[in-house]
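> call design_seq(struct)
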């Protein structure tokens, strides 16, 4: 998974630089937020923390195999939750784009939760990027779900599978800017309820 760590760090840096540059020009800022833990989350926070003036947000959960927030989270934006429900609520409310790197059950839980909220109209349509598309296409048979009629092809087609931080960044920026022009970005500067 080392190549994905490197891509995660690069993605954190690219998105944080873009979000911070916007803030300097008077546009709404976009910031990077992760689950605050080790591994891929640490990589993304590390990339964001390397950008001067950027925010690197972490929302951790107390787990027996994870020991607190990673050191790249901005101290004033470091949150530690006891309940998964509360953490997911506060991660999803202000979310304008979701990037999911290769992971396990917890990662899949968060991915499918947000996809379900989008599908049911409980969350705004947003870019959902599966970094490490080759991993995600191998571990989940998306087409089988469509063929079984358990999800629509439209829902699966809305997912963006990619291998690099540059691909992910380009897709996210394009979608967020289009959403801004269409007036459908709801969480910039406020929380969506």
């Amino acid at each position: 998974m080392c190549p994905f760590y490197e891509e995660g760090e690069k993605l954190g840096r690219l998105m944080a630089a873009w979000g911070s540059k916007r803030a300097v020009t008077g546009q709404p800022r976009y910031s990077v937020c992760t689950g605050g833990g080790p591994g891929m989350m640490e990589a993304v926070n590390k990339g964001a923390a390397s950008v001067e003036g950027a925010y690197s947000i972490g929302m951790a959960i107390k787990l027996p195999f994870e020991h607190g927030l990673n050191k790249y989270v901005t101290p004033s934006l470091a949150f530690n939750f006891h309940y998964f429900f509360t953490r997911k609520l506060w991660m999803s409310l202000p979310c304008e784009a979701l990037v999911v790197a290769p992971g396990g059950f917890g990662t899949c839980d968060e991915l499918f939760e947000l996809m379900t909220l989008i599908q049911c109209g409980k969350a705004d349509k947003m870019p959902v990027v599966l970094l490490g598309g080759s991993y995600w296409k191998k571990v989940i048979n998306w087409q089988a779900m469509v063929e079984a009629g358990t999800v629509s092809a439209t829902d699966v087609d809305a997912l963006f599978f990619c291998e690099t931080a540059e691909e992910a960044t380009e897709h996210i920026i394009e979608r967020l800017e289009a959403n801004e022009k269409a007036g459908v970005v709801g969480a910039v500067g406020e929380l969506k309820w």
